[in-house]
């Protein structure tokens, strides 16, 4: 990491620490911007990444998308271009040098605006690629991030300048080595955009049973093409994707509501409580009841819920 980037990272860490005095995920006065602080490298957390630009400002982190691992540190940044169910783990953090994370969420319309204004040429026929990637941090990108974060000290500037700086950050990412992945997601004629429509359908109706023919029709693809492209983008099949959504929502419900496992199983779309228990155990390592007891004994419940809902 260059001396310039190292200096920029130190400034960014100081600002984030001021706005993240306690461990957990912290919203900011900029609606799409979140910080995270963790004082001890703990166990895995599960959640759904929204389309977002993520940085490790201090420490290190691993994110698992299905069986694929993404490792990043202050020398890198991570981008999720669509909603993705993931497993994450902070791997470097101490009370003296806590893990500090930065997440900026974005929308497809923001990407389209940048593409329109910059006149970046996009080939909609390019083959689909994984919707999550790690790229090397560049000084120009980090400079835009710091200027965005500095706005928190001048709240009156946020309404005007935050959208402009967010646009600059997205422009820098689009200009980077993996920018074409973001471009493909928003181009209506591309396969990636068609798969995004299927992902949104599954996100909004995770408790529904879908026939694969129905999903193929949404994507305007054959069944075999849908399977191939969906796996290229998400690292899993549509069924596996929906299963992860269901199980993560079930875990959240078990933590936040006084419902039993059978009731939660049916609420998230399972027809068999025993099947739910088997698949829950496979994903989280414990059956529902034992998992709840373990989490509530090991962690402060509010902290666990925070980790479940938002990963930074």
From TrEMBL:
One Pfam family from the record: AraC_N
Domain HTH araC/xylS-type, chain residue ranges per copy: 196-294
Name of the protein this chain belongs to: Helix-turn-helix domain-containing protein
UniProt-listed SUPFAM superfamilies: Homeodomain-like
The entry's keywords: Transcription, Transcription regulation
Highest taxon in the source lineage: Bacteria
